[in-house]
Amino acid sequence: MIELLFGIFIGAVSGLTPGIHSNTLSAMIIVYSGYLLNFFSPEQIPIMIFSAAITHTFLDIVPSVFTGVPDEDTAIAVLPAHDMVLDGRGVEAISISAFSSLFSFFLSLPLFFIFLTFLNRMSGLVDVITIYFLISISIYIIMMERESFSTSMKKKFYAFSVFTVSGILGLVALKYSHLAELTPASSVLLPLFSGLFASPALITSIVEESRIPEQKLSSKLPGVKEVLTGSLSGSLVSIFPGVSSGVAAAISSAGSRKSEQYISTISAANTSNAMLCFAVFLTLGKIRSGAVDAASKFYFEVEALIIAGALTSLAAALLTILSGITASRILPRLNFTLFSSLVLILLTFFIYFLTGWFGLMVYAIATPIGLSTLFLQVRRINCMGCLIIPVILFRAGF
Question: If pLDDT is split at 50, 70 and 90, which confidence band does 165 have?
Fold first, then answer.
């Protein structure tokens, strides 16, 4: 039980720390695994890692909602969540996310066992269709820009341009990612996603002199359709090599129009993906996430993972809602323009500290690309080309 509590604790800390991805957490666990073995048995550490990874997918919505600073998994949710905060519905956004992740975990349990039973028969097919799958997703994301015919065609062109430019930046950033990996906690995805999704939201708040109104203590259950869509998207993406949960978020939210739908589908996709990456490893021996990479160094059993995940999900949902309520009581008392300015400055220093000059350069180039979606009035999801295009090209051998 102690390993479960410790996993929940470190997952909560990483989830509540703006900009930190669960892969960073997993890298740190690997680095200090020798020290951890003084306190935990080799069987306890993978349970801790799994618990931390699941907890992170719950609590990482809190900094995305209230500070506008995302990690890869919550990047697309920043603007919709930001809008709900400005409407006084920040706690409601948090509750939707918490319940979506909770329901997604239990909905994904049957998929977990289906993967264990049938996935090994599909391993060859998965490698073959990965590129075609991603190309189809790219077309779908761009074609979702719909208005009158003339305006729609123009919007699709703008969306294609943003998608392509983001992809070129992502390709360069990932190709030279070693220049940004200064410590085990470093990742080039931090400046990339912060520039595309976080800084535009913060800059907009500063320019418009936004204020956080008093937040209502309200909650709302997610729609069944959104949770199912997110869970299925997360499970689908966990199968394919080189496709991250950020892409799962893009797939699951591509058809969403309301803020609540975005948040629900993204949260469900992230939790489902984090869980089912372990099923893929157990079946195919393939590593699809940093958490699985860390856990793969140790022996673990399916039954122990499922029990740990169920208990973790219940605890993490409660922690997420309590954290959201706490943040909603503190932030409205602050000058939000000043707060956004400080967060933007701290984010910039944080990026420089973790990723150096190369990360800062990626961040500086990504920010105007992210801002362009506001001026062109296309959805921010098109910036997910930064991951999808590089994966397509890498899989094609370029």
Answer: very high
